[in-house]
Amino acid sequence: MMEPLARPRRSLGIIGGLGPLASADVFYKLVKATPASNDAEHFDLVFEQHPYRNAGRSREATVERMLYIFDTIREFEKRGIASVVLPCFLSHTFIDQLQENSPLPIVDMLEGIRAHVRRRFPSARRIGVLTSDYVRDAGLFERYFTQPEFEVIHPRPFEADGLDPVTSAVYGENGIKSGTLSGLPVELLRAACEDLAAQRVDVIVPGLTEIGLVADQLDRSSVPLLDSNLVYAQYVVSGEYGHPGRVFKVGVVGGVGPAATIDFMQKVVRNTPASRDQDHIKLLVEQNPQIPDRTENLIGDGPDPTVSLYATCKKLEAGDADIIAIPCNTAHAYVERIQPYLKVPIVNMLTVTVAYLRESFPALREVGLLATSGTIVSGVYQKALEAHGLTQVVPGPALQARVMNAIYGPRGVKAGYTTGECVDEITQAVDDLIGRGIEVIILGCTELPLLLQQGEIRGSSGRIAMLADPTDILARRCVAYARGDMQAEVVGLASLSSA
C-alpha cells in the first residue's frame, strides 16, 4: 500500500523591527495559533529583525521603512520562504506598492481583520479604530472598511489640550514602544475606548500592533475589543487568503543589436492599449552588446555566442521574467541549444512571424527573406517556413552581399546610418525579389525595419509586395501574452500595415 504524500511544509517570513515588541507578540501568537500536536507540525518560520536608523513617522522614515521591508523580502526569497507576514499597520499604508514589486506574497493584515469582523460580528457597522495619527490621516482603515457597509470611527482628541490619546499611548515619551506596558499608556487607551463607546461603535479594532501587548488590560465589557495581533496570526495560519496577481514581466535580451532593442521596446509600447503609464507592459532589459556577433560565428570563425546568450537569459530568469524576447533573428539559431536549460520560455521570433504569414495569407507558397548570411546559412527561417508549407526565397550572391553591406557596411545600419547607401542597397534586394514574383518579404534582420517600414512596397516593375516586420510581430505577441489576451496572437498583415 502506498504511503500518502506528505503535505509540503509552509514557510513564513516575519518582518520584525517595525516595532520590535509588537513583532515578537505576533510571532508568539502565530506559533500559538498553529494547530499542531507536536513540534514537527509547526510552520517553518523565519523571524528577521534588524534595527534601522530612522524609525519615526516622517516621510523620510516611511521611505526607509519601505526599503527595509523590500530588502528583507528579497532575503526571504533567497531562503525559500513562501509568504511574508508584515505585522505593522503603518507599513500597510503602502502595501500596494510592496505587493506590486514583491517577489513573494504578503499576507494582508487588514484583509484578515475585516474578514474576522464580518464573520464574528456580522451586524457590526460602526467600526471603532485605535490607531496612530499617521495611519488615521492616511485613511488606511477607510480603504478596507468602506461605506456603505461600514463606517470608521476614531477617538476624539482630549478637549483640554487636544492630545491624541492613542498616538501618545504608543509613541509618547513613556509609551508602549519604550517598553511601558502599564500605567499612563493603558489609561490613555482606556480613555480612547470609552470615547469610542460613547460614539456607539459596534466593535473596537486596534490599529497599532503595540496595543496587542496590553489588550488584556483594556475593558471589553461595553464594546467588544479585538486582539488584532491574534486575529492576524489566526488569519495567516488559516491560509484562507488570496494573493494579488503578480505583474507579468517580459525579459528582453538586448544589445543584439542595440538600436534594434530600442525599436522592439518602442513597438511594445506602441502596440499596448494604454491610457496611462501603469497600463503598459513591464519590461526587464539586459542590454548586452558584448554578446559575440552571431553571423561571424555562423559563417566564419568568430566566437560562439551561446554562453553569452544563455547567461543573459539566466539574468532575466533571475529577474522574474515570465517570458523572454530576443529581438535578433540570427540569435534564434542558438535558441534550441539554450531553451532546454531555462525555466522561462523564449518567444521564438521566427516561428511567430511565420505563423502570422500563414494566417494572413492562406494561399501563400513562397516567402522572400532578407536577412544576414548567418541567418540564411543556419536554415532557421527555412525550417520554420517549411513547417508551414512555405518555400524560402533569398537574394542571389551579389544581392546578398549588398544586404550584408546595408547591415554591416561602413555606412550600414549597424554603424548608425538609416538613410543613403544602406537604404539603396536593401531596396535593390527588395526590388529583385518582387521582380521574381515574391509577394511577401520578411525583413529578417532586426536592423532592417529601421530602413524600411512594414507594409506595402511597390517594385520598379509596378508589382506590389508586403514587407513583414518580425520585430513588430514579436512585440505584438509579447503584449498578447502579458495581457493574457491570446486572441491578439494572430493579426493579419493588412491590419499590421495600417496600425
From TrEMBL:
Record keywords: Isomerase
GO molecular function per UniProt: amino-acid racemase activity
Domain of life the protein comes from: Bacteria
Stretches assigned to coiled coil: none
InterPro entries named among the record's database cross-references: Asp/Glu/hydantoin_racemase (IPR015942), Asp/Glu_race (IPR001920), Asp/Glu_racemase_AS_1 (IPR018187), Asp/Glu_racemase_AS_2 (IPR033134), Asp_race (IPR004380)
Family statement drawn from the similarity comment of this UniProt entry: Belongs to the aspartate/glutamate racemases family.
UniProt-listed NCBIfam families: asp_race (TIGR00035)
Entry protein name: Aspartate racemase
Organism of provenance: Paraburkholderia fungorum
